[in-house]
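Tokens help. One example:
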Amino acid sequence: MTGWNARAIPDQSGRTAVVTGANSGIGHVTARELARAGARVVLACRSAARGSAAVDRIRDEVPGAVVEFRALDLADLASVRGFAEGWAGRPLDLLVNNAGVMALPHGRTADGFETQFGVNHLGHFALTGLLLPSLLEAPDPRVVSVSSVLHALANIDIGDLNSERRYRRWAAYGRSKTANLLFVHELARRAAASGPLAVAAHPGYAATDLHARGAKMEGRRGMERFYAAGNRVVAQSAEAGALPTLYAATARGVRPDDFYGPRLLMWRGAPTRTWRAPWTVHDAAGERLWAASEQLTGVVYEGLKA
């Protein structure tokens, strides 16, 4: 995979993909390049205005692209269920669980979950489970979850998944990204016989607005300027940051539970299989998180053997 770039994406004609959070950043690049390769792509976004504008941008950049917007708010399980109900009865070849939030001030989702854990993990856990029947109807389905190298900041606390005892924004972010990897690990185990190929990716340090959203919410202008400077000076582009996700989503030779990231110090460069913390491949932890996620969301995966 040395030097792999978006031009190496295999033909995606006839395949249908859903990309969450595709209105900006690496999600938008992922959706655009899948469409350029021939896939029909659904941009699943919270904001109708931003999602529709993103569809228009892709159509301008990729003439003939088959893309559409559908509303999805991962902070509201009713919205997640509504999205899945609107999809029922049609095969789905690829689900890219890309959307996420980072280092926000403490908050809660519509269902009362800590925001980062609720959006980054539980929303995607519920979405994947509810779309599983459609994934199982496709001949070669994949589920790609976008984690982060910052999963190494913290392991999950199975007794305090919603950070109720103490909330530290960066630790909560790390836990949510560890949860992404444990989810992929357990899904890969359960899907080994007849389920979707479950893999993960991370973008390294990519120039998106994700880093600064928490600072902006709190009016911390100094931190906003700091993150903006980091994007200009040391980050790679969103186009480069999307390559590990695109590789995981499309390349041949991808294996269950693989984790892809940038080659150079996990920071930038072409995609490669990358390091992950040992606690993200712990079978018992994956099983416990899965059981807790089912209980919290009410979503039980039908058709997979535990």
Summary: The first strand starts at residue 16 and ends at 20. The longest helix spans residues 115-136. Confidence is low (pLDDT under 50) at residues 211-217, 220-233. Residues 6-204+236-295 form a domain with the Rossmann fold fold (CATH 3.40.50.720).
